[in-house]
Amino acid sequence: MSRKRTALLATSAAFVIASSFAPAAMAAPSVASKMLTKKEVPSVFGTAKNYDFNVTSPDKAIWPCSNASGVTLYSQPAPKNQPVVDIETKNGKTYTSVTEHVYEYSNAKDAAAAYTSLYAGSKKCDGTTTAQNGTDTTSKITETWTTGSQPGASYQNFYVMNQSNFQSSTAKYNDKTSSFTLYSQTGNVIIATTAYVNPQEKFTPAEITAVSQLGINLTAKWAK
Question: Is 92 helix (H, G, I), strand (E, B) or coil?
């Protein structure tokens, strides 16, 4: 399993309500109503299966990409409030998930400033790096990142697309994974909408369109 997927899973642990009187528990229903649902998962990614909603494990930073050695290419501080929905799907023989990660700031000005910084910093992601895969000197991992934006969308956005290629001297351990994340901003939130597929060499145009439109639709929920 790639480091990227491990990071995604780390943000999607099962949601636990510590107390029925806790502030997070009181806010959960209204927050959950704005989040990704099973019905919204694009059919191109399969049929929604497992659903996790988490508001208790915020990341300390937003990091859109890392190189083949696992070194983060850009990061910036993340706000404390970060509701996350992670949905695994049944998609043939591939492992597929669709995730919405919301970064909720105290006000719209802070969110807009953070988005501007994140957009500029994401340019450091572009390119390809190769490194040894773990301790196995006969294997290597190649990470390719591409960034851009979806013009004409209702909300400002940019995307970060990844292709990971794991090569081993033992053919059965070779693997290719791909992911696509659309970052969008409205009001006091930045939203990262991600689809991840393993194995798959790269995202198809249909998959890119689907996750991009999903990201815009999810952003609209927070704009209301």
Answer: coil
